[in-house]
Amino acid sequence: MSAVAEHERYGPVVDYPRDITVAEAFIQQAMRTPDAVAVVAGTTSLCYRDLDARSGVLAACLKRQGVEPGSLVGLSVERNADLITAMLGILKAGGAYVPLDPSYPRERLAWIIEDSAMKVLLATSRTQSQLPTLPSGPAVVLTDEASGQLEPIGATGSSTDLAYVTYTSGSTGKPKGVMIEHRNVLNFFAAMDQILGTSYGVWLAVTSISFDISVLELLWTLTRGFTVVLHGEDGWSDMADEIQRHGVTHLQMTPSLARLMMLDTRAFASLGGLSKVLLGGEAVPSSLIRKLRQVFHGEILNMYGPTETTVWSTCGRVEEPGTTVPIGTPIANTQVYLLDEALQPVPQGEPGELFIGGDGVARGYLNRPELTTERFLNLPACKGRRVYRTGDLVKIRPDGGLDFLGRNDYQIKLRGHRIEPGEIEAVLEQMPGIRQAVIVLREDRQGDPRLVAYVVPEAPVQVRGSSLRTALAERLPEFMVPSAIVLLPHLPMTDNGKIDRKALLNMLPPQADPVDHDGYSKESRHGLGELVARIWQDALGVGAFSHDENFFDLGAHSLTVAEVHSRLQEELSREISLVDLFQFPTINALTAHLEGTAVNEGNSDRAQRRRLARQR
Asked: Which domains does the chain have, with CATH numbers?
């Protein structure tokens, strides 16, 4: 093999089964350990034999509905044992699953359904009622209606068939579907074998199937004989109980979730019982590692990878952190290259854009041939290999590892979510009375980044930031709705006529909309109400706001809720349920509840779905 140039790094070459599917890999594991516990979800426990049989029956049901290799099947099932059965059933039938999170706005779900042209939607009676109907009116197969009279079937399809299509944020205003084949997934599995080993373990699965890192938690584990403890939909507050009760050994989480757990003494202490912690989805600060090392002395892995290269592409074992935490080196059968703007190798020690090649590179974007051609390239500087252009800037360290430096465009990573600002901007600019919009990521308080929209209205039109946020929530997932919207007469421009984003970041932190004093109630202006208001103002970084204003409409998210929860318990010297802060999301409502006169905030399906999304 020729010498490796300074601008490139290769992962180890590892063999993996190239002629089977993910479903076949699971069936082989079920044959090896039929009586071992495969899935634990609440009070339900399934052994490998039962999970194999149930998913086989569902696969037979799907076959009757016309599912075959190449079929895209919508998947919207609650986080219980049926979810795992459904995933495996789709894969066994030869289909590729397309996650549909019922907490997403119906307009976004309708777009995914239309764009994927799915002919079958796999749901339960509850999630079905929250989803738009399919345009062609095909059958909806309910997992609890899978006929027990059908004989279970094995796996169909080949390694080059699609395994799943995950929709990510798109710069054109619509999400785009990333197509991942079985061979991509099996290659990834082999790489994880090298990094994690294949000895038995118990994995606490906390990630929504809408995000591809769930593939490691739910499918790699079940093809390696692990027990998967499926974390439910009740937020993170009971994770400590699950870790201790089930003897969890492995946990994968975003740094944001890790910070959440660190705010709760009991949850933080529970991390000490784990063997391996995987961090990924956003940059890992050194301070987080130092804090984690106070209770956890096992192996910490910093993972990096875009959806387009199948979950993770590099891995770094974290020992003692320096000023930065490296994203490590390429995983098995993966190559990385650092190129400049002219697509030429960067000089030694210089930062460059990261291009990723290898067996994990996706087929491309569904129904987006031009975008696929733009992002998936064959370049002489990459040995002619097909590579994915990440847009991420990295630098090779003297020890050969990679440091993540940021983006060469405006893409944002926020609490584990990949966000294209252009998608939010496009939605805003389609609204009546809006001339121009720009989205930036601000971190006015350390460790609490947030999306802020700067909006220029049409001259004579009166608009309010709170109204725009409400409209955005109808079309975008909660994590894409800006926490603040600032109205400007015009946007600052650079000398060459481009929007000056640096000038926007140098502006004073945005505050809440002007207070409507009629929204106050006399009862909450003093005493407990005043305390609740002060704590929330500090956590949100805003001035006074109406005591009937919803915290989440002012930009609250799981981290701020956890901070408020901790401070309230400390100030009041008593236990408070974390769920209360979601159930009573205004100063007046929360104050009344804490005083023992709970206010009913409403039980509409939409309200429940939005609270669920925020808890996640």
From this structure: 420-505 (3.30.300.30), 517-615 (1.10.1200.10)
